[in-house]
Design goal:
It is built from twelve helices and ten strands. By secondary structure, it is of the alpha/beta class. A five-stranded mixed β-sheet has the order 2-1-3-4-5, with helices on both faces. It has a three-stranded antiparallel β-sheet with strand order 6-10-9, with no helix packed on it. Strands 7-8 form a two-stranded antiparallel ribbon. Helix 5 packs parallel to helix 7.
Length: 430
């Protein structure tokens, strides 16, 4: 039927819709690959652990654990328990196993990674069982009671990220009419608002951070501003593909490599390597350093976030230059006009001249005189009035309306030198 057949005019519209539907389909594929690839099968890859003890017994035990685990563990030996606690608190090792014939001990820090501590406990529990003693687990850096798993900071990362990259769509779409300077100021304001929300969620609302809320706000602002500046800069070049690019950068690759759920040693090599420099990992590890580890390692995470912010500023600057060139190329070429020297815009300044009193027989300075054949001749559509020079006519002054004997009739074309200059010919007009 004719009603079911698409018209030729509907084909471009259908193609336009299908092109836009490509974005959510790619998002679906990317989210599935990223999340399942990073979280479905967590396995240790070179997980750093330590064996605490002295003598050949400790060396043999450490080598046995290494042989059984293979590449899953990186095993080192320490001489005393104090050194082991320092290594765990500094997050150089995930766990430390203290050898003992009566009561072996496993030292962990669940604030660094609850999943890492769980994996270490599963690895060393059978070793303690072979010694015929129960394993004692000591948590030297526990999480807060309001965040027992330590994953609340990861979900704070999710909230800040969504608020940031969703604002990019607004600034890129509705804010496209603004100059880049105006959008940059909005980025600063929006990132400030998002970071305030993050500090409120971490502090008074869910009590994830019992201290250092000012530091939480600062880290959140650095993280959010970096995302927003990168998004605003990319929108100039990618247009409608900016949303997909932001999802890839700050959701698919960001959440999976942040270490909020699994430490990088429990992920495959790709996501584990991203943890070393990605901004989400810098944010989560920076929060952990601030809240749980007494600012240890905080400067490195601040450097990571600052580099991402610098990248965003560079992209925004490049976008501003590109938009300026596009506007210059699209602007029509107009003739150059000479600006008025003074007075109101667009109005020429009239030069005033000083006039002197003249005699009745003297012709005006601002007039051209031409001999005309008849009275009432015109020049350029303007009538001329006759003038007479010579002896005075009977009963009239010089230049009277009747030509005297010997006089000659002429006509004058007047040009005014200033406003009201026509009044200077009084006495000569017939």
């Amino acid at each position: 039927m004719s009603g079911s057949t698409p018209t030729p005019a509907a084909a471009p519209a259908l193609r336009h819709v299908l092109t836009h539907l490509l974005t959510p389909l790619l998002m679906c594929l990317g989210m599935g690959l990223a999340y399942m690839g990073a979280f479905v099968q967590p396995e240790p890859h070179h997980l750093p652990v330590a064996v605490v003890g002295e003598g050949p017994k400790a060396m043999v035990f450490a080598q046995t654990v290494k042989n059984e685990a293979g590449d899953a563990l990186d095993v080192r030996t320490l001489t005393d328990r104090t050194a082991a606690i320092d290594e765990v608190k500094d997050r150089r090792v995930t766990a430390a196993y203290v050898l003992s014939d009566t009561r072996p001990e496993l030292i962990v820090a669940t604030a660094a990674s609850d999943t890492g501590a769980t994996v270490a406990q599963k690895i060393f529990t059978p070793a303690a069982a072979r010694q015929g003693a129960p394993l004692k687990v000591t948590d030297v850096v526990p999480t807060t009671a309001d965040d027992p798993t330590g994953q609340g900071l990861f979900f704070l990362l999710v909230a800040i990220s969504i608020g940031s990259y969703a604002s990019v769509a607004v600034l890129g779409g509705a804010g496209a009419a603004l100059r880049m300077r105006g959008r940059a100021l909005l980025v600063v304001a929006v990132s400030g608002a998002v970071s305030v929300i993050g500090a409120l969620l971490a502090g008074p609302v869910f009590h994830l951070a019992h201290h250092g809320l000012a530091g939480v706000w600062g880290l959140s602002w650095l993280y959010s501003a970096g995302i927003l500046f990168i998004g605003v800069g990319l929108h100039t070049f990618l247009k409608r593909w900016t949303t997909l690019a932001m999802m890839v950068l700050f959701v698919m690759l960001n959440f999976t490599s942040s270490g909020g759920l699994f430490r990088p040693e429990l992920q495959n090599g790709f996501f584990g390597s991203l943890n070393a420099f990605w901004n989400g990992a810098g944010y989560v590890e920076g929060l952990r350093s601030l809240v749980y580890f007494g600012h240890d390692g905080l400067s490195r995470q601040l450097s990571t976030l600052a580099l991402w912010l610098l990248l965003g500023l560079l992209l925004t600057g490049a976008a501003a230059l590109t938009e300026h060139r596009r506007r210059t190329a699209a602007a029509p070429t107009l003739p150059r006009t000479r600006a008025p020297r003074s007075g109101r815009p667009g109005r020429r300044r009239t030069r005033r001249r000083r006039w002197r009193r003249r005699s009745p027989s003297e012709p005006p300075r601002c007039a051209r005189s031409r001999g005309m054949a008849s009275r009432g001749a015109t020049s350029q559509g303007r009538p001329f009035r006759p003038f007479f020079r010579g002896p005075s006519a009977p009963g009239g002054p010089s230049g009277g309306p009747v030509p005297p004997s010997g006089g000659r009739a002429v006509t004058a074309e007047w040009r005014s030198c200033d406003r009201g200059g026509h009044g200077h010919d009084v006495g000569l007009r017939a």
